[in-house]
Amino acid sequence: DGGITQSPKYLFRKEGQNVTLSCEQNLNHDAMYWYRQDPGQGLRLIYYSQIVNDFQKGDIAEGYSVSREKKESFPLTVTSAQKNPTAFYLCASSTLPGQNNEKLFFGSGTQLSVL
Amino acid sequence: EDQVTQSPEALRLQEGESSSLNCSYTVSGLRGLFWYRQDPGKGPEFLFTLYSAGEEKEKERLKATLTKKESFLHITAPKPEDSATYLCAVSPFSGTYKYIFGTGTRLKVLA
Fold it and tell me: Residue A6: which H helix or E strand, with range?
């Protein structure tokens, strides 16, 4: 079945530690996204990528980094510079704007907590 | 500034009690408006895409409509399994791949 796989489902970060969230898609989508979701707030865009080896900062990129070495994969690293990392992280992918049936497909999310 | 506002924040309905959720938006140009359903601890699940004013989409007990300033998600005769958070998002003609989300409406349907 086609879809987006995020791992792990739960992740704990110690003070000063970098952690990496995995996101893999087999939908052959060009665009991939990382969103952060906090209680009572809308989804906020961290980074997005339209093509391999290229990505752009979203609205809250500080303290995060990404890579896009393969079309299928878009890992997110939460660095020690992110002082409030506790949140639900969602990876998504989509076809390019203007193409038929454009919509975001989401993974099942990763809950990150600070120890 | 592009913005999406959803109301109400939370809604409790009795089973069978129909109602509507609202999504108001301001964008420089609307490419598409999207509705999603999200269950606790899970990723949002796609429901509908609307592209132009006057457009309507239906799926089981849900019907989405679109005007130039807002969209409604009508829920007819809801069941307890319809309980979830419903998210609205817009994609503006900004030249980027951004989707702007509202904060959602938490729906609880009581048996």
Answer: strand A4-7
